[in-house]
Specification:
Keywords: Membrane, Transmembrane, Transmembrane helix
Structural class: mainly alpha
Distance between the termini: 15 Å
Largest sheet: none
Helix content: over 70%
Radius of gyration: 13 Å
Order of helices and strands: HHHH
Strand content: under 5%
Number of helices: 4
Number of strands: 0
Number of domains: 1
Amino acid sequence: MARVPSAVVAATGLVGGYGVARWTKKRQLGGAVLTVAGAAAAQQWRSRAGGKAAGALTVAYVAAFAGSHPLAKKVGAWPSVLGVAGAVALASWAVADRKA
């Protein structure tokens, strides 16, 4: 089976969680997507980069989600979500995916 980079999993969780919440008008459903993808990414981070790196990247993932809300008031919802997803993906790639 092909290996999916953790950067893709994390970015997909942020973008997909927002998209699902917006299109279904069910925030809990978007939160479930965000949570499942975040847990999958964290598992990958732990196995590829260790516990400390996984903890730091998980904090970054949650901070990106929280930070996207005030950022959206300045730049719009989609630009905000795409920006924070890109930032988390870049951090994930640098820490866990680059050497793989």
